[in-house]
UniProtKB/TrEMBL annotation:
Xref: PANTHER family: PROPIONYL-COA CARBOXYLASE BETA CHAIN, PROPIONYL-COA CARBOXYLASE BETA CHAIN, MITOCHONDRIAL
InterPro entries reported for this sequence: AccD/PCCB, AcCoA_carboxyl_beta, ClpP/crotonase-like_dom_sf, COA_CT_C
Species in which this protein is naturally found: Pectobacterium actinidiae
Domain CoA carboxyltransferase C-terminal: 229-458
Name used for this protein in its record: Propionyl-CoA carboxylase
Highest taxon above the source species: Bacteria
Annotated Pfam families: Carboxyl_trans (PF01039)
GO MF terms held by the record: propionyl-CoA carboxylase activity
Length: 458
């Protein structure tokens, strides 16, 4: 069995694959099949099954474009799989693509540009998942970055320019994996969401991911979360960090969490989970890192998940423990306002059930960043110890020590009470409910998976 056939066997349902074209004289296999009975289109280069052949380039481009367009018409997901052509021990070298056709491939309306354009049009409305199993660079790597999700093995790598090009043009010494390996893209650039040691594990986890993105039927069998002392999870002192993962484990189905980008922008947690077998997306601040503040990177990470929820019609639970958007010179120079704008656009374009829950605190722009009132959540909930407001209690206390007249002092005293007493906000109609941690699982079912899952005005 060839390498390509092995990969299809691991990824797709048994005997479900149908090739669109003969592939003995092309670099890619293009076709369709199913994953967990969900239809899916596949574009996969043949890896070690073939060497680069200059005579195959135009046919390969045509096959990729045709399959992408067929997938767009069908409206089903597309998986684009890239690997280095040639045997596993063959050095990575893109200079072997030199040919007399290079100018035509670059400038022809039906050349390489059309591959990227076709995939970009497809990804605008449909789910595109990129899988990187070996090294690639330049124009071959560009289409991969259009993916809603990018999965990679430790052997995979991608970069704009090869190390020899970087050396020649910038006089910088580098190697392929420092430029574009798993550590670089999963921890620093954020371009890769999941990394796996072996491709068989990657394909297995991708099948699991498909069951969360495209559930074919409700899962009756599920495991209740372990019972824990909920009083020890969230520190009462709002300045003390804690790991939000501990709170998640209290109410989601046991071992159902599939985290996305766990090593990037760790101040925000994103991923999929289930409650009573129902898949949903979680976007939550994590005070263990940077106090849970929102940086440009964390905003971008949130946008990716919200956009994916829009395409897959997946409900979202937002859990806030956030001081707000990060401030200061570094944050401003990073493009904080641009990132916030993209986040707000993603919120208003996402018309799925969304639940907003304040775990411990939510101040000013942090309320909006997590899809709070104004962005049509199905409910606005808070735990009893939550502080919610424009200012924190500590900030209000500092303001109250300054020169204030009687009216100003009274306004701040009233505001301080409201910020630290969510029941008062509920009485004013500003919160849907104040709940305990033990009620979280029940309330998520009510507001994300029942007839109550409609936007509310509070």
């Amino acid at each position: 069995m060839s390498c390509s056939e092995e990969r299809i066997k691991h990824l797709l349902d048994c005997q479900s694959f149908c090739a669109h074209f003969p592939y003995h004289d092309t670099h890619f296999i293009c076709g369709e099949g199913t994953i967990n009975q969900q239809p899916v289109f596949i574009i996969m280069n043949r890896g070690e099954d073939c060497e680069f052949n200059v005579l195959w380039q135009w046919k390969t481009i045509d096959h990729i474009i045709q399959t992408t367009e067929r997938a767009a018409v069908s409206g089903v997901p597309l998986i684009y799989i890239q690997d280095k052509l040639g045997g596993g021990d063959t050095p990575f070298n893109t200079t072997n693509v030199f040919s007399e056709d290079m100018s035509s491939l670059l400038l022809s309306p039906s050349g390489m540009g059309k591959v990227s354009a076709s995939l970009a049009r497809f990804a605008h409305r449909n789910v595109l998942i990129s899988v990187i199993l070996g090294p690639t660079s330049g124009p071959l790597a560009l289409p991969l970055m259009l993916g809603d999700l990018v999965l990679m093995t430790d052997r995979g790598a991608f970069c704009m320019g090869r190390p020899d090009m970087v050396k020649a043009m910038l006089a910088e010494a580098s190697d392929l994996y420092s430029l574009g390996g798993a550590t670089m893209h999963a921890r620093h650039s954020g371009q890769v969401q999941c990394v796996f040691e072996m491709e068989t594990v990657l394909f297995s986890r991708l099948r699991t991911l498909f069951s969360l993105l495209f559930p074919r039927q409700h899962t009756i069998n599920f495991t209740q979360p372990d019972e824990v002392d909920v009083n020890t999870i969230i520190p009462t002192d709002h300045r003390v960090p804690y790991d939000m993962h501990r709170l998640l484990s209290v109410f989601i189905d046991k071992e159902s969490f599939f985290e996305c980008s766990p090593d990037y922008a760790q101040e925000v947690i994103t991923g999929w989970a289930k409650i009573q077998g129902n898949p949903f997306i979680i976007i939550a601040n994590n005070p263990k890192y940077k106090g849970g503040a929102i940086y440009r990177q964390s905003a971008t990470k949130m946008v990716r998940m919200i956009n994916l929820a829009t395409k897959c019609h997946t409900p979202i639970l937002f859990i806030a423990d956030v001081p707000g958007f990060m401030i200061g010179k570094v944050a401003e120079s990073s493009g904080m306002f641009l990132a916030a704008a993209e986040l707000f656009k993603a919120h208003v374009n996402c018309e799925v059930p969304k639940l907003f829950l304040v775990a411990r605190k939510a101040y000013t722009g942090g309320v909006f960043a997590l899809g709070g009132p104004g962005f049509n959540p199905t409910a606005v909930l808070a735990y009893p110890q939550a502080n919610i407001g424009v200012y924190s209690v500590e900030t209000i206390n500092k303001i109250m020590t300054t020169s204030l007249n009687e009216r100003e002092y009274h306004v701040l005293a009233t505001l301080k009470y409201e910020v630290s007493h969510p029941e008062r906000l509920k009485d004013k109609g500003l919160l849907t409910d104040v709940i305990t941690i033990s009620q979280t699982r029940e309330k998520i079912m009510t507001y994300l998976f029942s007839d109550s899952a409609d936007p509310v005005n509070v």
